[in-house]
Amino acid sequence: MIWPTDIGPGAIATVVAVLGTTISPYLFFWQSSQEAEDLADSGQRPLKQDPRGASAQFRRIRFDTFVGMAFSNLIALAIMIASAATLHQQGITQINTAAQAAEALRPIAGQFAFAMFALGIIGTGLLAVPVLAGSAAFAVSETRGWKGGLEYKPQQAARFYAIIVAATAAGVLLDWGNVNPIRALVWSAILNGVAAVPLMAAMMVIASRRKEMGRFVAAPMVLVFGWAATAVMAIATILFFASLI
Predict the structure, then answer these.
(1) What is the pLDDT of residue 108?
(2) Do 152 and 142 contact (CB within 8 A), yes or no?
(3) Do residues 105 and 128 make contact, with C-beta atoms less than 8 angstroms apart?
(4) Cα angle vertex 76, ends 186, 119, to 5°?
(5) How many Cα atoms sit within 13 Å of 135 on the Cβ side?
(6) Alpha helix ranges (H) inside the chain
(7) Which pLDDT score, from 0 to 100, does residue 38 have?
(8) Angle, nearest 10°, between helix axes 181-207 and 9-22?
(9) Most confident of 10-19, 46-55, 76-85
(10) CA 181, CA 10: separation in Å to the nearest integer?
(11) Is 129's pLDDT higher than 60?
């Protein structure tokens, strides 16, 4: 398929990757499971059994989500702008290693460029690894009906913790393999964007059904924005696959 020169397959893939890192499927499993665990740990009953406490819980969840998403998107925007102002300005449009990206900091950080970038990578890893491995364990355990959750001890939910260990070990092995880390990050983001579409559609269908949600069925405005986001993700995914033809 022929695309305009300024909107080629690479640009479309980048859009899908950005969407995939913003609305990542693992976040659906992680946040919902953590909210359920927090309620259980605090001794409160599920909201369907105690609807009077729903308003306060929804306000807390809404505030937490809005603040978290605002910070994450502002940081992502700052990273993209900084990369464009440093790497792209110098004509560097192909990054294959973290060391190459670190070099962009040299005009600012000098000899400390490597240390600054290393601290950023380590901090990101400490934040991302538990979330990614944990969300995988939540997703598989919930799909298979296994006992799972961080409130359990390893001997109480062996399969849940085994998935966390396996996911972490797979990441270590991948790091030791002959894999381009930057390319792996991009393709994982693209896969996230593609996988998010059916999950978002299923989530919106369930959220709109009173049979499943009871009095907690999603409000009309939530459904409008939810389906709009799903449509944007779907269109980007369709364009991505069309660009491969």
Answers:
(1) 65
(2) no
(3) no
(4) 85
(5) 14
(6) 9-22, 25-41, 54-86, 98-103, 106-109, 113-144, 158-176, 181-207, 210-213, 220-243
(7) 72
(8) 60
(9) 10-19
(10) 18
(11) yes
